[in-house]
Amino acid sequence: MSVPDRKAEKLTGTQEAFLQWNAERLGISLEESKRRYAASAAVLPGGHGGSEFGKFNGVAHEVFRVFFEDSATEVFDTYRYHGPMHFLVMLTYPEPKWVATDLIVKELSKRSEVSLLDFGCGLAQQSRTLAVYLRDQGIKVRLALADIPTLRQEFLIWWGKHERIPTSFLPCTRDQPIPELPECDMCQTTEFFEHVHDPVMYFDRIDAKLSHGGLLVTGVMDHSADFMHVSPDLGTLRAHIAHRGYQTLVANRVLRKP
């Protein structure tokens, strides 16, 4: 089954897992779960990943700013309220196909055990598929996912059990925006730092737990100013990372801790 206007595309592994999880969660058949997903995607042209759904997201954000802003204290409620809407968008994200020649795979395959941390994980397509790839190569993998707790938390924990990959979810809350982090060999922070009010503070907490020679997979280029892009200018963070001596493997995206 594929969503409307994308009939030639095969469902991603995340979408397939979602359909199974949602069927189990609701106590319905897999076929009914598929029907509901297709019906939801058919409401607007292009489905959940189309421009019309993007406009719908923007309108919803603006309408409900009367209750939830993207300020440091209110943003946690904003993400929780809009969680199901963001969930549907994230389900359309593509998944990487990892290969032995990939830079990140080559770096991590040197280890017999790998601890992955994904901060601001969303649906964690990058880190989850990497964890599966490394596991299938005989490497012992642990996965920690940190984000604001929404409906996605339940799905991600279910996924870890389904794939038999030790997976923990670390909730980021107003009272504890940065949870206690585990030691890690790689930290994924893609599309993250522009969403937090003090990027340097978050980086320092991650840096303290990242192993020497570990990878920071991120996106520290500047971003457009937008709702929830509360730190679009990441120049101070880039300078701070450079001061810490991180080696650039891919500019602004893949960095190695000294």
Features of the shown structure:
globular, 7 strands, disordered N terminus, 41% helix, Rossmann fold, 258 residues, alpha/beta, seven-stranded mixed beta sheet
CATH superfamily of the largest domain: Vaccinia Virus protein VP39
**Quaternary form:** single chain
Distance between the termini: 47 Å
CATH architectural label of the largest domain: 3-Layer(aba) Sandwich
Q: Determine the strand fraction and express it as a percent band.
A: 15-25%
Which word captures the global form? globular
Computed over alpha carbons, the radius of gyration is 19 Å
Mean pLDDT: 94
Summed up, the domain count is 2
How many helices? 10
CATH structural fold name of the largest domain: Rossmann fold
Main beta-sheet strand count, sense and barrel state? 7 strands, mixed
Order of helices and strands: HHHHHHEHEHEEHEHEE
Query: Which class best fits the helix and strand makeup?
Result: alpha/beta
CATH class of the largest domain: Alpha Beta
* Count of individual beta strands: 7
At a glance:
Helix content is 41%, strand content 16%. It has 10 helices and 7 strands.
Write the layout of secondary structure elements.
Layout: H1 13-26, H2 30-41, H3 51-63, H4 75-81, H5 83-90, H6 103-108, E1 113-119, H7 125-136, E2 140-147, H8 151-163, E3 167-171, E4 184-188, H9 199-209, E5 210-217, H10 235-243, E6 247-250, E7 254-256
Parallel strand pairs: 1-2, 1-4, 2-3, 4-5
Antiparallel strand pairs: 5-7, 6-7
